[in-house]
């Protein structure tokens, strides 16, 4: 594969060329070596759930059409898919649990380095959770909030508290379908039970429970992670920052954080400003300590502190291959085990920190909330001390870095539209109703060498904003679009359609809004609820002129997200299909019939422009159904037709 | 000319990837996701057969003196040249199945409609482009290889010598 076919990002191309010269394999080479990938796996036709098997169904109908137990393609594909949902929901929800744990310990005074930073949010959460705050101190309230949230993980009956944020109509539908999430852990356990040999053998029944599990992530685990992170670390506000490998500094200690949870990375921000450590850095010949990040732990500290981002998922190996990373700290999720072998070619130290995630040949410094700050300082010290081991000839820091304005949330961003003194969603709703905006779309998810790096995210975003669709982004999609310059307010002038441009100009926001990490997709759900509640655009999320997409997805988390988004009523386009195409019935259910069930369905389209137009067509249909005005600046010839 | 489909019996895990990729190669779209929707469904020319703990992909051996070619009454089967592929001209095949009866390996088959023979063509289209046959390229353990007679001979000699030195005995098969 030529470097131009691997990535659209110039900085990545530059490092890929160096890696190739040095004989360093990256995900792209490993992917090429793996092609063709197993067709049974790609189609979802391989079952390893019991030892009657492994079984696989022949998609060309010459070989077996049933597993040893009699399971058909339909049963096998559906079982496999909802196990992916369980994996994804587990990852997000365990992240949420960790944040709740940190809040609890902080309230009990057992941690070093944390405090409740957003008391306002804590109080409003307490109110929502039915906790009386009168006469109670901040710590007491925080303790009760954490305990109440904890109980939602193990809850056996009832409904998840945050699911009540959804419009009444949506809640009623979930109850009617029997997919209102009861407890976070419970739904995941039930997936494992149902998919055990000889339990649930009805693909529709399986997928239905898959949706319930996904909802327990989106309106449970993920939403808890977002809300409690805001309480602990502060609710983000728009902030200026920089992105791409060019943020690494030649003459400073570069410490890169990679993974997902903000508990450690947030304290690392404090530790990296420690006077003693800065002095040590200077003694070691470095001008300072430069903190940068990869993936969502980076998004968390970008949103709250403006810490620069070095890159997204497929750039984790490339960051090390710049030769300028003195230490890469990893926590959980999306961390390639390949990092250690790339690091061996350089002086970079890989430090794992989570008791849940150890890596071959990485140094392990276990993170504990009780000792957060001292541990963070220890890791920063390791980075500082490793600075002098840099090999000058091996250092290649690309020039590319781009400005961006991240830090938008459901609370802040859209209220800006109403101005400081009139914080309301009204202007956003009015913009859509009047047709100045066609609608809104969320582009989220990962990178995947199956799709040219960043190309899916960036082309899709450009096409959408050109057509007056306001775009919100999270996770690796946010980083891709940031690198392409779409997260600068000025991007509106270059790329946005006339209607969207007018809004961006009036409010001073970019046409593509960074709303956070991948658990922060819950911010998108809350935003959609607020839009429905504001009025004038129907009574349910499924009536809104909005769409979702994950053009470069790869992880189980993305499957869980896609399902909670669709089960919440948003049409969603995926770049690569789910591994279910081997079953006609499951494919038909997900891409067509689900629309009659939850008011939204999936589409699979790898071309980002075509995918964008599937979204635009969908948005147009929703506008029509709501009898909204014509899109204000639709091309004239189209109006004549 | 490389025409020997060499199978390393120790390496075949019976994953059937060769079958799947063969069917895709012989589909109209040559794309998995589209091929599974085609009418008629494409068919594989290779089949992984199992006997006790042995599994081995079997397909046409492209014999030098092919009984199928000899017996074909319509000259639908043809040996292109010595050392090369035995090919089938589908339009000439009358479906008499004589070839099926005389093939010593049972690697010929009739198509889905039961009208004409289907057999391995060593992926001639791919060979012309300098690519390996689909089954060989896809084999995840590299149990399948396309080799010349000389390469096979060399491989066997090496195996024999290693075995001879290590254990002082001749390795079977």
Write the layout of secondary structure elements.
The complex is a heterodimer of chains A (641) and B (173).
Chain A: H1 3-6, H2 10-22, H3 27-34, H4 39-43, E1 46-47, E2 55-56, H5 73-107, H6 119-128, H7 138-154, H8 168-177, H9 184-194, H10 203-233, E3 241-243, E4 253-258, H11 262-271, H12 275-283, E5 289-294, H13 295-305, E6 309-311, H14 316-321, E7 327-330, H15 339-343, E8 349-352, E9 363-364, H16 372-386, E10 402-404, H17 413-418, H18 426-434, E11 439-443, H19 455-466, E12 469-473, H20 475-483, H21 491-495, H22 498-507, E13 512-514, H23 521-534, E14 546-550, H24 556-567, E15 572-574, H25 584-598, E16 602-604, H26 608-625, H27 636-640
Parallel strand pairs in A: 4-5, 4-7, 5-6, 7-8, 8-9, 11-12, 11-14, 12-13, 14-15, 15-16
Antiparallel strand pairs in A: 1-2, 3-10
Chain B: E1 4-7, H1 17-25, H2 32-35, E2 47-51, E3 54-58, H3 67-71, E4 77-79, E5 86-88, H4 98-102, E6 109-110, E7 117-118, H5 124-128, H6 134-138, E8 144-147, H7 149-167
Antiparallel strand pairs in B: 1-8, 2-3, 4-5, 6-7
């Amino acid at each position: 594969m030529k470097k131009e076919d691997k990535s659209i990002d110039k900085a990545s191309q530059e490092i890929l060329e160096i890696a190739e010269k040095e004989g360093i394999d990256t995900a792209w080479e490993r992917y090429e070596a793996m092609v063709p990938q197993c067709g049974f796996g790609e189609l979802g036709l391989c079952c390893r759930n019991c030892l009657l098997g492994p079984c696989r169904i022949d998609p060309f109908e010459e070989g077996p059409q049933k597993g040893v137990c009699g399971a058909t393609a339909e049963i096998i594909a559906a079982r496999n898919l909802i196990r992916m949902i369980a994996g994804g929901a587990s990852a997000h929800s365990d992240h949420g649990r960790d944040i709740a744990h940190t809040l609890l310990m902080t309230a009990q005074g057992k941690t070093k380095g944390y405090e409740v930073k957003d008391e306002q949010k804590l109080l409003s959460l307490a109110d929502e959770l039915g906790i009386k705050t009168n006469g109670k101190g901040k710590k007491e309230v925080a303790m009760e909030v954490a305990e109440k949230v904890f109980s939602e993980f193990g809850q056996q009956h009832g409904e998840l508290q945050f699911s009540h944020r959804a419009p009444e109509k949506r809640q009623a539908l979930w109850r009617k379908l029997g997919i209102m999430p009861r407890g976070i852990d419970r739904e995941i356990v039930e997936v494992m039970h149902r998919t055990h040999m000889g339990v649930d053998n009805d693909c529709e029944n399986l997928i239905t429970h898959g949706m319930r599990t996904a909802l327990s992530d989106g309106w449970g685990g993920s939403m808890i992670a977002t809300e409690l992170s805001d309480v602990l670390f502060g609710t983000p506000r728009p902030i200026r920052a920089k992105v791409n490998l060019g943020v690494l500094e030649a003459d400073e200690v570069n410490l890169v954080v990679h993974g997902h949870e903000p508990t450690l990375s947030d304290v690392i921000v404090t530790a990296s400003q420690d006077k003693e450590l800065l002095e040590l850095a200077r003694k070691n010949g470095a001008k300072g300590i430069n903190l940068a990040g990869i993936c969502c732990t980076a998004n968390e500290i970008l949103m709250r502190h403006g810490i620069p981002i070095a890159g997204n998922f497929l750039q984790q190996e490339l960051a090390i291959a710049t030769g300028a990373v003195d230490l890469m700290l990893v926590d959980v999720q999306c961390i390639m085990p390949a990092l250690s072998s790339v690091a061996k070619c350089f002086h970079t130290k890989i430090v794992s920190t989570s008791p849940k995630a150890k890596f071959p040949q990485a140094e392990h410094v276990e993170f504990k909330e009780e000792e957060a700050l001292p541990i963070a300082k220890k890791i920063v010290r390791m980075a500082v001390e490793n600075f002098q081991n840099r090999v000058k000839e091996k250092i290649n820091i690309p020039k590319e870095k781009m400005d961006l304005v991240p830090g938008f949330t459901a609370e802040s961003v859209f209220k800006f539209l109403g101005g400081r003194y009139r914080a309301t969603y009204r202007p956003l709703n009015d913009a859509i109703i009047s047709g100045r905006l066609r609608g809104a779309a969320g582009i989220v998810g990962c990178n995947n060498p199956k799709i040219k790096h960043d190309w899916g995210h960036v082309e899709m975003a450009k096409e959408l904003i050109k057509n007056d669709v306001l775009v919100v982004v999270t996770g690796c999609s946010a980083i891709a679009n940031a690198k392409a310059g779409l997260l600068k307010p000025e991007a509106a002038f270059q790329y946005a359609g006339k209607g969207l441009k007018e809004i961006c100009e009036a409010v001073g926001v970019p046409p593509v809004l960074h709303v956070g990490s991948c658990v922060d997709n819950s911010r998108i759900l809350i935003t959609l609820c607020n839009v429905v509640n504001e009025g004038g655009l129907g009574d349910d999320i499924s009536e809104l002129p909005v769409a979702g997409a994950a053009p470069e997805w790869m992880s189980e988390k993305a499957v869980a997200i896609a399902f909670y988004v669709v089960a919440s009523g948003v049409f969603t386009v995926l770049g690569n299909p789910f591994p279910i195409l081997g079953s006609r019935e499951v494919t038909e259910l997900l891409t067509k019939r689900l629309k009659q069930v939850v008011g939204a369905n999936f589409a699979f389209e790898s071309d980002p422009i075509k995918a964008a137009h599937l979204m635009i067509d969908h948005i147009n249909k929703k506008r029509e159904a709501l009898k909204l005005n014509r899109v204000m600046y639709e091309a004239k010839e189209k109006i004549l037709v | 000319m490389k025409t020997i489909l060499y199978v390393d019996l120790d390496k075949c895990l019976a994953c059937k990837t060769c079958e799947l990729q063969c069917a895709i190669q012989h589909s109209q779209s040559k794309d998995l996701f589209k091929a599974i929707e085609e009418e008629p469904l494409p068919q594989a020319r290779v089949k992984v057969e199992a006997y006790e703990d042995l599994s081995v992909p079997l397909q046409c051996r492209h014999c030098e003196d092919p009984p199928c070619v000899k017996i074909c009454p319509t000259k639908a089967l043809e040996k292109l040249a010595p050392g090369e592929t035995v090919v089938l001209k589908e339009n000439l095949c009358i479906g008499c199945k004589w070839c099926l009866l005389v093939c010593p390996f049972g690697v010929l088959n009739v198509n889905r409609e039961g009208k004409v023979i289907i057999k391995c063509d060593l992926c001639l289209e791919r060979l012309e482009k300098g690519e390996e046959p689909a089954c060989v390229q896809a084999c995840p353990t590299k149990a399948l290889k396309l080799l010349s007679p000389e390469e096979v001979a060399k491989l066997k000699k090496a195996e024999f010598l290693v075995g001879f030195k290590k254990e002082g005995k001749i390795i079977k098969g």
